[in-house]
C-alpha cells in the first residue's frame, strides 16, 4: 500500500509517523515537504532510526497544480495522512488578516484540496484511509489561538462530515486530535518571535505573559508529564489508527481525554455518523 504523509519536517510528528510506517516494512511511504532543499535534516533522522526508505516529494498543499502533480507521480494513494500544518498565535484585534487566511489555507483548504485529489482513485479501488491531524484545539478552543483553533475545528467537522458518504466506498476518514506534543511547532507558530507577539495590543500583554508561563510549565514541568507526548509517542497513536480495519471518525489522545470528555461526553462521533447514514441507507 502507498502511504502519503504530508509535512515531514525533521523532529516533528509527520517525520515520526513516516519513519514508523517505513520501519514496519508494510507500506511504500512517501513524505512531503514544501521545499525539498530543506530535506537533509529529515534524511538524517531517517538514517539514524531505520534502514528503510521514505520517498520524499515536494508538495505545496496550497497549490492545485502541486497536489495533482504529486499524486500523479505517486500513482495511487491508499492511505493519506494530512499532517502539514501552520500555527498562529495572536489576538483577534492584533491579527493580520492575511495570516489568518494563510493559516486556513494550510490547515483546512490544503487538506480539502489534497483529499479532493485522491478521492476518485480511492473510490474506484473501493478502499481508502484518510487521517487528518487536527488538534484538541479544534474541539476545545484555546486563548490566543483563535485562528488556528477555528481552522482545526473546520478540519474536524470536514472529517466527520465525509464519513457519512465515503464509508459506502470503504473509505474511512479519521480526525486525530492530539494535545501538547514536545516539538518546535508552538515556538515556530506564525507570529511568534522570541516569546513576543508583534502587533499584539498592549492591553493583552499581562494576560498573554501569564498564558505563556503556564504553557512553558506544561512543556517542561515533570509533574505535567501526563499532559504531553513526544512526537514518537503521538506517531504511534497514528500508526495504530492506520492499522485498524475500522478506524473511528475521531480519535483524541489520552493526554486530553479528561478535557474533551468533560465538554462533549461521547466524542467519538460514531453515533452522529450512524444517525446521518441512516438517512440514505
From TrEMBL:
Pfam families tied to this protein: adh_short
Coiled coil (UniProt feature): none
Record-given protein name: Retinol dehydrogenase 8
InterPro entries from the UniProt entry: NAD(P)-bd_dom_sf, SDR_fam
Record's keyword terms, sorted: Oxidoreductase
Protein family according to the UniProt entry: Belongs to the short-chain dehydrogenases/reductases (SDR) family.
Domain of life: Eukaryota
Gene Ontology CC: cytosol
A Gene Ontology molecular function term of the record: oxidoreductase activity
Amino acid at each position: 500500500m502507498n502511504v502519503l504523509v504530508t509535512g515531514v519536517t525533521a523532529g516533528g510528528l509527520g517525520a515520526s509517523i513516516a519513519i514508523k510506517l517505513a520501519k514496519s516494512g508494510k507500506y511504500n511511504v512517501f513524505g512531503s515537504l514544501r521545499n525539498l532543499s530543506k530535506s537533509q535534516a529529515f534524511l538524517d533522522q531517517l538514517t539514524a532510526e531505520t534502514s528503510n526508505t521514505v520517498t520524499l516529494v515536494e508538495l505545496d498543499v496550497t497549490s492545485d497544480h502541486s497536489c495533482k502533480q504529486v499524486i500523479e507521480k505517486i500513482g495511487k494513494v491508499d492511505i493519506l495522512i494530512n499532517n502539514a500544518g501552520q500555527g498562529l498565535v495572536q489576538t483577534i484585534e492584533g491579527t493580520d488578516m492575511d495570516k489568518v487566511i494563510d493559516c486556513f489555507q494550510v490547515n483546512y483548504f490544503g487538506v480539502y484540496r489534497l483529499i479532493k485529489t485522491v478521492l476518485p482513485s480511492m473510490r474506484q479501488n473501493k478502499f481508502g484511509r484518510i487521517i487528518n491531524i487536527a488538534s484538541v484545539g479544534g474541539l476545545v478552543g484555546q486563548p490566543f489561538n483563535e485562528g488556528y483553533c477555528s481552522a482545526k475545528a473546520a478540519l474536524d467537522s470536514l472529517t466527520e462530515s465525509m464519513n457519512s458518504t465515503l464509508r459506502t466506498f470503504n473509505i474511512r476518514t479519521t480526525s486525530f486530535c492530539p494535545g501538547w506534543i514536545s516539538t518546535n511547532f508552538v515556538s515556530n507558530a506564525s507570529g511568534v518571535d522570541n516569546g513576543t507577539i508583534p502587533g499584539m495590543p498592549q492591553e493583552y500583554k499581562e494576560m498573554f505573559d501569564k498564558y505563556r508561563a503556564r504553557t512553558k510549565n506544561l512543556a517542561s514541568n515533570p509533574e505535567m508529564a501526563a499532559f504531553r507526548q513526544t512526537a514518537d509517542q503521538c506517531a504511534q497513536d497514528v500508526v495504530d489508527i492506520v492499522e485498524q480495519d475500522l478506524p473511528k471518525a475521531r480519535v483524541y489522545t489520552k493526554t486530553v481525554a479528561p478535557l474533551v470528555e468533560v465538554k462533549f461526553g461521547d466524542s467519538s462521533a460514531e453515533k452522529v455518523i450512524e444517525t446521518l447514514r441512516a438517512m440514505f441507507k
